[in-house]
Amino acid sequence: MESRTFQVLEFPKILGALSGFATSEPGAAACLAIHPYDDLESVRRAGVLFEQGAAWVGESGFRMRAFPELGGIFPHLGSELAVLDQDALFALKILLDLAKDARESLGSFEERGWEVLKDELFAYAWPQKTVSGIGRCLDAEGQIKDESSPNLMSVRQEIRAIHQRCTKRVKDFILQENLGAAMQDEFMTVSSDRYVLPIKANFKNKTKGIIHDYSQTGETCYFEPIFLVETNNKLQELKREERAEEYKVLQYLTGLVRQEQEEVREAYHGLVTLDVLMAKVRLADAYGGRTIEVTEEGAPKLLKARHPLLALTDESVHPVNIELLDGQRAMIVSGGNAGGKTVCLKTVGLIGLMAFSGLPVPAAEGSSLPLWEDIFVIMGDEQSLEENVSTFTAQIQYLRRVWDKVDARSLFILDEFGAGTDPTQGAALAQAVIDSLLEKRATAFTATHFPALKAYAMATKGVRAASVLFDPSTKRPLFRLAYDQVGASIALDVAREHGLPAAILERAEKYLLLDGSDTSAVLDRLNAMAVKKEAELDAIEEERTRIERKRANLEQKFEKERTKILKEVQSKAQDVVKQWKTERIGQKEARKKLHQARLRIEDIAPERKKDTVFSFSDIVPGKKVSYLAWNKSGTVLEINEKKKQAKVDIGGVAMWVKAEHLGPADDVSRPFAKPAEAKAPATSELVVEVDLRGHRADEALSELERALDAALRKGAGKLEIVHGRGTGALRREVHEFLKYYPAVENFSLAPEDRGGDGMTEVTLK
Questions:
Q1: Cβ contacts of residue 83 below 8 Å, gap of 6+?
Q2: Residue 693 near residue 723, CB atoms below 8 Å
Q3: What pLDDT, on the 0 to 100 scale, is given for residue 369?
Q4: Cβ–Cβ contacts within 10 Å for residue 52, how many?
Q5: Contact between 231 and 50 (Cβ < 8 Å)
Q6: DSSP string for residues in 342-384
Q7: Taking the CB of residue 662, how many other CB atoms lie within 10 A of it?
Q8: Spatial separation of the C-alpha atoms in residues 151 and 145, rounded to whole Å
Q9: Burial track 713-733 (b if 16+ CB lie within 10 A, e otherwise)
Q10: E strands, 194-348, where?
Q11: CA dihedral of 375, 381, 383, 386, whole degrees rounded to 10
Q12: Among 686, 636, 683, 639, CA closest to 664
């Protein structure tokens, strides 16, 4: 794609805005280097990457931090003798710490399946040796730690000991020589890596020593007393040893980086990619952008699209629908000046470049574009005085130069093509160009004021006419498109709006009437009808949105109420079962109350799919079925042909249930036996564990009951109760409870290797 296209459509300005959202210099540079992809797979992958990145950022709250430019260290590592300095290694530490935070954040969303995001950012092997080495040797300020090597620690300890000795000796010296009045500062300082005393210049000859330097004002001299000379000489030796040991540490760390330089390089590139991705997310937030579908071919469809640069600077920009129907490959936009024709054409071209580059665009969901491999643009005044080229000549030269490149995968934008010459000939030439573009099956968007081209748009197959709308009363632009009609140029109205003298306007109107080509009345009528139609469509859209919002609110409210009632009924049902277990009510009364609870649940239960309900003929005694309202399984004990009901044993409670409220269970049916003699159906292999340690007896039994109910709902076959050994009191309470629980078939202490008398294993019916 030609660089001229990017400049005319102002694509670099979008990249400049994107780079402003980056947090690092390499990220900003990468933003400026973005360009459209050549193939559909890459475009779609970039779209998926953005969607997954935006979802991750939104859910995790991860925020990018600045990191330094490190591209230069990798060529440096090519030399075996090269050693990275302390600053470079600290920059690497910042980089790898940030990469680690990002990896861990994304790793916590493993179940979301964001594989494209993971592959683009963190597909490399983690440079663990480098991370560990730098973390062990550099502190949070980037300084080499004492613990980096035994020799370094020893040298630094000796340096600190010298400092302490010098401090004490200097204090004693000042008192002994009565130099308190001579000191500019009560502490000694360091000059040229030697301990010196900052004394007033007029006291410099009071005692023997070496003057190393003066302050800028000359009032202070840095004086080394004779008694510190030997100590300072020793300090110099230690400083040299310290630098040598530090260099060994830098050599060691550089060796680690060199061993894992590919992994480090990938980590760096991954962070640059992440910075660009998060800049795209911020750009989308700035103007409500999103990725749109890009297809192999088809008609362009941009819904509620806004020019990206205008959308960034002005939130009130009017969105416009730009759409070709199936079989149409060209659009001709007409209408008055300042109505938005050129902006409409630029919007199509710029959104295309952005979409093909993996950038979010300000358009509504449902928008799509075919992948154009080339975009050609003739726009604005292209004359050049230096090259002696007029506007029309420049248009023709450009058309001649690119014509052989135009094909079915091209978009051609023509703004006022042919306007720089005789209107009749210019219109004929424009029609011929569009005819030829249709033959090449290219997509074309054109803006024009030529009446002949407007008529051509209405009469030619494969071409769609569109008009920018104006307020019928004020003649001000509405920045809306009306399709399948043409618009008046309203040049006189625009001139009047911008203050052209009335006398000139009156003469122009007379000449227009004399010419006999004034069609403004008809076109004004069409414009007024189109404005009315658009207003009606807007009202319908608002009403539809209002109804959908109301419906969503009602559904949400219903679901909340349904959930609340369901919990209340389930709680009451559990209370009934508890009362029956403790023999506070009889079985008949318990069945009656459970039946009432069941009826209430059925009233609010969501509709079940028809394939989950089977007919009465499918229900036979001994068959295991599922009670849909409770989502629990039970066994059919008997049936009532007349009432089309079945008596079902659910967790030890028998109840009559209508056939339509039952569904098939996982287990196959078994021969019928009387309730007292019936064996438990085959249980699931699912095992549920509950830990009661640390609870009082009443709390433990309440927790156990909830665990049993949950296990039955899940269809579990076994329950493991961890109660601990202790005094055995909690174990006895648990066993006493299990003896009378209807859904328990048997229980026993676990084998010694699985907990012994600290755990009880329960088999459920």
A1: 247, 250, 251, 254
A2: yes
A3: 96
A4: 21
A5: no
A6: HHHHHHHHHHHHHHHTT--BS--TT-EEE--SEEEEE-S---B
A7: 26
A8: 12
A9: eebbbbbbbebbeeeeebbeb
A10: 194-200, 209-214, 220-225, 293-295, 301-305, 320-323, 330-334
A11: -100
A12: 636
Tokens 């030609």 belong to 2
Terminal alpha carbon distance of the chain: 73
Distances (CA, A) of 690 to 62, 332, 718, 726: 36, 73, 11, 17
At 306, which amino acid appears?
Answer: R
In the numeric block, which tokens belong to residue 301? 């469809």
Question: What amino acid occupies position 294?
Answer: V
Residue 70 and residue 135: Cα distance in Å, rounded? 18
Instruction: Give the other-Cβ count within 10 Å of 127's Cβ.
Output: 24
pLDDT of residue 475: 56
Cβ atoms of 272 and 27 within 8 Å: the answer is yes
Q: Which residues are annotated as a binding site?
A: 335-342
- The binding site for ATP comprises 335-342
pLDDT tens digits, residue range 618-634? 788 888 888 776 667 88
Q: Which residue has the tokens 């076959």?
A: 717
- pLDDT tens for 127-166 read 999 999 999 999 989 999 999 999 999 999 998 888 888 8
Read off the amino acid at residue 87: D
370 bridge partner residues: 295
Which residue carries 């730009």 as its tokens?
A: 322
Q: Which residue do the tokens 């001299």 mark?
A: 221
Quote the CA–CA distance of 379 and 104 in Å, as a whole number: 50
Quick one: which of 280, 401, 364, 372 has its CA closest to 40?
A: 372
Pairing of strands 632-640, 687-691: unpaired
